[in-house]
Amino acid sequence: MAIRGAAWSRDELVAALKLYCLTPFGRIHSRNPAIVALAKELGRTPSSVALKMTNFASLDPTIDRAGMGNYSRLDKIVWDDFFGNMESYLVPQERATAPLAAYEAPTEFRFGERAGLDVLRLTKTRVNQSFFRSMVLTSYDNKCALTGIEAPELLVASHIRPWALDHATRTNPRNGICLNTLHDRAFDEGLITLEEDTSVRYSPLLPAIALEALKSISDTKLRLPSRFLPDSEFLNYHRTEVFKAG
User: Fold this and answer.
1) How far, in Å, are 26, 34, 41 from residue 46 at the CA level?
2) CA atoms of 206 and 224, how far apart (whole Å)
């Protein structure tokens, strides 16, 4: 248990940062059950955990609201390392050398003596992508950024720079946009893209009926998230390399 007023350890900061990524701004307060639970686990007060999470906001250059501003040097080190090497934080390192007993691999992922390793890789990928999805959807208030659809079953954390292309950007929340399944597919296939001002551009390869259908339910510009704004370099890559301009 932490001593009242004791400096935060690196592990404690990582735990608070993970929760920060998955908590809407309006719910970062000492009465949030998730914050209360983490505070109990860390041996700290809910108020101190909520304050630390609020301070992390001041380290995010993409948001339009300031945090408390009095983050520590270690806060910034943890922030930079977490977002620069996120995948290493999502699955505990000690599990990397042992099969996951709690998870049964599908038949297609069993390869004799390599089964444990392949199961680990599959599970790690799922854990990472689940965290990525939660971060992105939270940033967009669990609403499609082009239509406002709120049904979670219809929402996808779309990768701007394709998932398979760059290992380093797979879990970067600034490489994600919350879209409904239809617009996600159109975006993934390069049939729509976003201009520099985030207005929607449609491919001339879209059939007229499909074009009108997409336009009829879509805003003309992206609804920006509360944090983790889409990276302009990723959007430029999508426009030039993924979008089908004709």
Assistant:
1) 15, 9, 10
2) 25
Residue 47 neighbours by CB distance under 10 Å: 13
Chain position carrying tokens 């009926």: 209
Tokens of 232: 């302009």
Cβ distance 201 to 243 under 8 Å? Answer: yes
Question: Mean per-residue pLDDT for 111-125?
Answer: 49
95: pLDDT strictly greater than 90: no
For 138-147, what is each residue's pLDDT tens digit? 999 999 999 9
Count of C-beta atoms within a 10 Å radius of residue 180: 23
Which tokens hold the place of 2?
């932490």
Please tell me the pTM assigned to this model: 0.80
Q: What is the pLDDT of residues 16-61, one digit of tens each?
A: 999 999 999 889 999 999 999 999 999 999 999 999 998 898 888 8
Residue 217 backbone zone (phi > 0: left; psi -120 to 50: alpha; other: beta): alpha
The DSSP result for 156-212, as a single string, is EEEESS-TTT-GGGTT-GGGEEEEEHHHHHHHHTTSEEE-TT-BEEE-TTS-HHHHH
- With cut-offs at 50, 70 and 90, classify the pLDDT of residue 69: low
Domain residue limits, the chain: 10-84, 134-242
